[in-house]
Design a protein that fits this description.
With about 675 residues, the protein is an alpha/beta fold. It is built from 26 helices and 18 strands. The relative contact order is 0.09.
Length: about 675
């Protein structure tokens, strides 16, 4: 039986401290969401005060329990807990809630505030992130735990609200977690039946217990303001190792507020000074704003002292484990450090040397070599691995009871897939990837955006990258998707042209401190003939010269991916006509634009007309071609036909491209 550190009377005092601190901070900022922190405080204190394993002095301890506040709008709940339980979040930061430069932004931000495990706010994302953490934890435990010592034996906890469960991503992730029998997941559902517009029955009458039971979860119901019930439910959830657990805690939003308890008025607006005063009186709280009673601080301090003893015991056990298991210790270091071999470039290039083919197939070849060299790499597809070429050959699938493998099966759940690999990246130890068709990037775009916002090394394999998909027609032909992904700050979007660029694209993804989208073709492509001065490192600069005639070129033609060889063929066709065409491959616009101006001017000389060629929308290319340049692309949805017919109809044959360049140059004369 887990020892209870904070009895009910002291727990209520700590919960009231969270309530008042949250209300005061929101009131001072004149902005925020006081209702959830006040309503969920009892559940949070029961968890943090009795079960959650952490050490505020070592916030990245690998075996800590993870706490995800999926309902990120209730951020003051988390900030209050971090402050009370000894993290480096002083009261001054609580006072500066939602202010410029503070460590207490409106929604929790990973990497910005110590102790925050994940950036949350878009509802349901945190729910799915936690599932990714749970998968990663099980996979790590399978690799490192021994009969004598288990360096990984922690839990993933999350707190979510009605909004998280109404978002479809939560159902996708819950179904996957139930299928995998993730008994290390324990979620608390703050069921206060209130959303912004009013009571949830305006739009929701779902049987949540029935939903999660059907998904294979262990379900309990408690009074969310009864400490003994919450503690008992958490203990029972920890004992249930064969299923993920959800505790449905019925609560009152803004608990303790005489006028606003149970009202949507408390969801996203300050209580106001008069109502906070009335709440203080109602709770018997006589401490001034932003002061925490000493008895509350003592209770939290005693809990932290016990946690530090547990942490020290783990460190001693871990040191002995390292000595007794040198092979596992070496693997631990490689995986948690995400080490890359010194020979990475050479080995990736050798894997595709001289090979033509679709870049999705070439990527699959490179993937096998990456998996061989880097044990941290794991991933899978949204039920499209044969088309995405995303399986790691020779490795088993990750299934319930079999977490030693490296191939994940997300099912037809792109939205959850993106959030799950974010959770795995946040967990540490693994470099995760997820694959689907590019046209379905829209389904996982919110998660991709959060990958970038959190600077997480998640790799997205997006195949079938243009109208060259062919007969499947416009529903499956991405037109605007590459341009759209390029608009996400911090997302490295790479569209390789052949095997060399595909190998270098994988290297760029493995070296990048953030997410990468690899944009890959369905159709076969030839090997690009490059100038003698080319080195593979040129591809890592985002843009480089494929071919340039002697002397000053008449025009520079840029392209990415499957259009690079078309640009090169058009240049060869125009050469006998006396036109000097420089061909530039730009696999990654963002990386090229980040190069020094001197390098970019060498590739794209000033005052030379510029043309860009890409089978999609052209807006992002404007930064390179300027107002007077020519973009050859497609500004309409596609059509159903063989790819060769589509190339002709949309003007992407070599003669058509050459003619467009000639017409453009005549206008420049």
């Amino acid at each position: 039986m887990h020892s209870i550190m904070i009895p009910a009377d002291k727990a209520r005092r700590c919960a009231d401290a969270v309530r008042i601190l949250s209300a005061d901070a929101v009131d001072r900022a004149n902005s925020g969401h006081p209702g959830l922190p006040m309503g969920a405080a009892d559940c949070a204190v029961a968890l943090w005060g009795n079960f959650l394993e952490f050490n505020p002095d070592d916030p990245r301890w690998p075996n800590r329990d993870r706490f995800v506040l999926s309902a990120g709008h209730g951020s003051m709940l988390l900030y209050s807990l971090l402050h009370l339980f000894g993290f480096d979040l002083p009261m001054e930061e609580i006072k500066n809630f939602r202010q410029w430069g503070s460590k207490t932004p409106g929604h929790p931000e990973f990497g910005h505030t110590v102790g925050v495990e994940v950036t949350t706010g878009p509802l349901g994302q945190g729910f799915a992130n936690g599932v990714g953490m749970g998968i990663a934890s099980r996979m790590a435990a399978e690799r490192f735990n021994t009969s004598d010592f288990k360096p990984i034996n922690h839990y993933i906890y999350a707190l979510m609200g009605d909004g998280c469960l109404q978002e479809g991503i939560s159902y996708e992730a819950a179904a996957l977690a139930g299928h995998l029998k993730l008994g290390n997941l324990i979620y608390i559902y703050d069921s206060n039946s209130i959303t912004i517009e009013g009571k949830t029955d305006l739009a929701w009458s779902e049987d949540v217990e029935g939903r999660f039971t059907a998904c294979g979860w262990h379900v309990q119901k408690v009074d969310g303001h009864n400490n003994d019930q919450i503690v008992a439910a958490l203990a029972a959830a920890r004992d249930e190792t064969g299923k993920p657990s959800i505790i449905i805690a019925t609560t009152h939003i803004a608990f303790g507020s005489p006028a606003k308890q149970g009202s949507s008025a408390a969801h996203g607006s300050p209580l106001g000074r008069d109502e906070i005063a009335a709440t203080r009186a109602n709770l018997g709280w006589d401490t001034p704003p932003f002061e925490v009673p000493q008895d509350v601080r003592d209770t939290c301090r005693q809990r932290v002292e016990k946690l530090k003893q547990d942490h020290a015991a783990w460190q001693r056990g871990f040191a002995s484990w390292r000595t007794a298991n040198p092979d596992k210790a070496e693997l631990w270091d490689r995986m948690w450090n995400k080490s890359l071999p010194a020979t990475l470039t050479e080995e990736l290039l050798a894997a595709v040397a001289g090979k033509d083919g679709a870049t999705r197939a070439l990527s699959g070849t490179v993937l096998q070599k990456v998996a061989e060299l880097i044990p941290s790499l794991v991933g899978g597809s949204a039920d499209l691995s044969p088309s995405n070429n995303s399986d790691i050959k020779g490795s088993p699938s990750v299934q319930a009871g079999t977490f030693s493998g490296r191939n994940l099966h997300f099912g037809i759940r792109e939205h959850a897939m993106g959030a799950v690999i974010n959770g795995m990246a946040l967990y540490g130890c693994f470099i995760p990837y997820g694959a689907t068709f590019l046209v379905f990037a829209d389904y996982c775009r919110p998660a991709v955006r959060l990958s970038a916002l959190m600077s997480q090394q998640a790799i997205y394999l997006f195949t079938h990258d243009s109208f060259f998909v062919g007969e499947d027609g416009p529903t499956h032909q991405p037109i605007e998707h590459v341009a759209s992904l390029r608009l996400i700050p911090g997302l490295q979007v790479i569209r390789p042209a052949d095997g060399i660029e595909t190998a270098m694209a994988w290297q760029a993804a493995l070296q990048y401190n953030g997410p990468t989208a690899l944009i890959l073709t369905r159709q076969k492509l030839p090997v690009i003939a490059r100038s003698a001065s080319f080195t593979p490192a040129d591809a890592l600069k985002g843009g480089y010269i494929v071919y340039s005639p002697d002397g000053t070129p008449d025009v520079v033609v840029m392209a990415s991916g499957s259009e690079v060889h078309i640009a090169a063929e058009a240049a060869a066709e125009l050469a006998p006509q006396g036109m000097k065409v420089r061909v530039v491959s730009v696999p990654c616009l963002e990386t090229f634009m980040a190069q020094p101006a001197e390098y970019r001017s060498q590739i794209l000389p000033a005052d030379i007309p510029r043309v860009a060629l890409e089978a999609g929308k052209g807006m992002p290319w404007g930064r390179l071609i300027g107002c007077d340049g020519l973009f050859i692309g497609i500004e309409r949805f596609g059509a159903s036909a063989p790819d060769r017919i589509l190339a002709e109809k949309f003007g992407f044959t070599t003669p058509q491209v050459a003619d467009k360049i000639v017409s453009f140059m005549k206008k420049q004369a």
